[in-house]
Amino acid sequence: MFNDIGGLELVALVVLAVLIFGPDKLPKVIQDAAAFIRKIRAFSENAKEDIRSELGPEFKDFEFEDLNPKAYLRKQLAENDDLKELKELRSSFDLRKEIDDVTDAVNGREPSGVSDAAVPAAVNGTPSGGPDLLKKTEKPARDERPPFDSDAT
């Protein structure tokens, strides 16, 4: 809780406490604060024990820290050694090859390891029912108007 308080800040807090409460009342205030903290801790431990007893014997090793999602996942991954399927899936998936195949398909080249029958005709460079929209067209002359597209307006 107070991991980020440095020495200078601690000295400033002590001086401030002495100024506020005075040197005579400061020990009593510290004792009262420590007693209050002990009562809070005892109350929370009793509440945890009551919840564990109400949940039943199957939850006797239940820890409230496990309710934190990060702690829960860390515990489950540490206990579970059956991640073979995930490791096999990860090793079988070659992201670089997939990206290269998509890049080749977009550029009109034949993807590595794929035949012409597996690639659609429009991707392979031959038109199938329309012009190839991936290829750049010539710019119209200055006095020539570009084609009008009524759907775009």
Automatic annotation (TrEMBL):
Q: Which domain of life is it from?
A: Bacteria
Q: Where is this region: Disordered?
A: 100-153
Which stretches are transmembrane?
6-22
Compositionally biased spans, kind Basic and acidic residues: 133-153
Q: Which GO terms describe its biological process?
A: protein transport by the Tat complex
- A GO molecular function held by the record: protein transmembrane transporter activity
Which positions are tagged coiled coil?
none
Q: Does the keyword Phosphoprotein apply?
A: no
Using the UniProt record, give the first listed, main subcellular location: membrane
Its localization reads: Cell membrane; Membrane
**What is one cellular component GO term in this UniProt entry?**
TAT protein transport complex
* Topology relative to the membrane: Single-pass membrane protein
Q: Which Pfam families match?
A: TatA_B_E
Mind telling me which Gene3D superfamilies this protein's record contains? 1.20.5.3310
Sum up the protein's function in the record's words.
Part of the twin-arginine translocation (Tat) system that transports large folded proteins containing a characteristic twin-arginine motif in their signal peptide across membranes. Together with TatC, TatB is part of a receptor directly interacting with Tat signal peptides. TatB may form an oligomeric binding site that transiently accommodates folded Tat precursor proteins before their translocation.
Q: What is this protein called?
A: Sec-independent protein translocase protein TatB
Q: Which taxonomic lineage is given here?
A: Bacteria, Bacillati, Actinomycetota, Actinomycetes, Kitasatosporales
